[in-house]
Amino acid sequence: MRSSSKTRSARPRLRLSYGLAALALGLSGATVFKASAETTGTIDRRAPPAGLTLTLPTVQEPQGPTLEGEVFRVGVLASVTPDRQRARLDPYRRHLESVLSRPVEFVPYREARGLMLAASRGQLSYAIAPGSLVAATASLCGCVEPLAAQPTHLGLAGLFAALAVPASSSITSPGTLETLTADRLVIVGENSVVAHHIGLSELSRAGLGVRADANYQFASSLTDAAEALTDGRADAALFWTPQAAGPQMSAGVPAHDLTADQRNELRIVWRSPPAIGETHFAHTQLSADVQQALQSSLILLANQNGAAFDAIDNGSGKAFVTTTLSDYRPYTDALRFWAVIPRSLED
Asked: pTM of the prediction?
């Protein structure tokens, strides 16, 4: 029988000097970033939030005005060459200029660390980045606040970590999860954003004694994890899902390769809170009036300026909704669970 599952310690191998930035990129969830000397980089937005290859090139800090300067600087993670990205975002840049009555400049960053440092040092007024980076930057400096994010294509706040078991399992609810041991858990996607990092963190938060350094099985896909459950190598599978409720798996991603019979043989018994994706956030040195103007313009954008909305649409087509730092707790807890946030930042 085909099997690609493997067993190893669950703690990610991070470069310690870049720990916070590296995990922020590893938790990003929405994108897969590849940088090279020839190109600014590409983002595959079709890819599921699975394991990412972390590349941390030398950071070149941007030169220019700080928050007190005339130009309003907006940071973004690079998805194409800078000129192409600025051209794509230009309708939203012009919209911001009309809202703020001042020049607006978009600054693409090749990797998360550069954007985090610029935001924490007040070199950016505003940024658009994965929810994990918002949580990591707020933990780093306490100087940013989320403004708004788009719901998923299903109209939900984000993606969920979920635990699936065979339909015949004695694990029938979160209250019976204490019978699950680490060596009998298979995680879909080593270093995956939602399943691995947030999933284990949230299971630990639920009081199940989950440890970051325990030995877990890993599978490259939900199909491989389902095989591990079927042939008895594992008792439960930890994976990500867009579904917010219900024990039955839907036929969509990530279960799209499972047959109807395979899906019917599995039952979802637990879910994490949602992990919010791409987020618009602002530096707290901005006045309350400016932050309110930015937030209100985002909430109304889909109805008021279709071209500007299309320029920043994450693919869901859903109107923006207000978010607060408390909505990003799964990321903040995951950063603490994996011992990335120093003790001095937890207070």
From this structure: 0.80
